[in-house]
Amino acid sequence: MSVHSQVKRVSVPQLMACKGQRKIAALTSYSAPFARLLDEVLDMILVGDSTAMVGYGLPNTLSITPEQMAAHAAAVVRSTSHACVIVDMPFGSYQQSPQQAFENAASMLAASGADGVKLEGGAVLADTTRFLVERGIPVLAHVGLMPQYVNTMGGFKAQGMTEESAELILKDAVAHEQAGAFGVVLEGVAEALGRRITETLAIPTIGIGASPACDGQILVTEDILGLSGSRIPKFAKQYCDVGAVIRTAVEQYANDVRTGAFPAMEHCFGVKKAGN
Ligand code: KIV
Description:
Blueprint (H helix, E strand, L loop, with lengths): L11 H5 L7 E5 L3 H7 L5 E4 L3 H4 L11 H13 L5 E5 L9 H15 L3 E5 L5 H9 L4 E6 L5 H4 L9 H17 L3 E5 L3 H10 L4 E4 L7 E4 L1 H5 L16 H18 L5 H5 L7
Helix pairs in contact: 2-4, 4-5, 5-6, 6-8, 8-9
Bound molecules: 3-methyl-2-oxobutanoic acid.
The site of 3-methyl-2-oxobutanoic acid has 12 residues, from strand 6.
């Protein structure tokens, strides 16, 4: 293979170097067709455990497995060559111990070829971040609204609304930075806190419902394309209605099938008529 034909992905250090230089544009993807479309445009693709809700129609993210996440991440890595691909560590795959986290993270990265992992958790998980980073696994920490804590939070609610809880989230982010995280996803916090954490950390913050003050943004792709039905969070901006385009195409297809306007075999493959 010639040197010129090798396309280099955005690396974790390159993402870190974006801090203060330019904003990081990131979206989720769980499958080859979307990943192919997003790849050239984005700095980072997250194979989020939100696929449990978005892709599998589950009520929360808690029941997706490391094997499922690795399979989705492998599809995304296979169909991309530019964006940095980060895969979510699913609930129950890392909270027990740093060793458990390393085993699951290492096997998910080995099976998929993804560039790093994301894990949800406050300062209590900073030792796990350190354990992974010191063993060669880049970690993106996720603080604030953490969907894997839906049961302890009592729903998907904005976080850090009191001075005390805002202070705790800042401490969570700082603890992961000190443990070696390459970035922090900040979800569901007010602008003042998003700005404060962004100004405090030397690593990039990637916001989701955490204000434009963050060093980058991430959203669930289906939410911005009109593919999430009615489950769109308030902070997600919808850029187009792909759902409507798909519905029209499917109606036309069904109509073609029912009216016999569907292309015949010989038009597709040049099949000769019998006797010719
Ligand atoms: O699972 C997910 O999609 C996420 C986001 C930050 C969007 O964690």
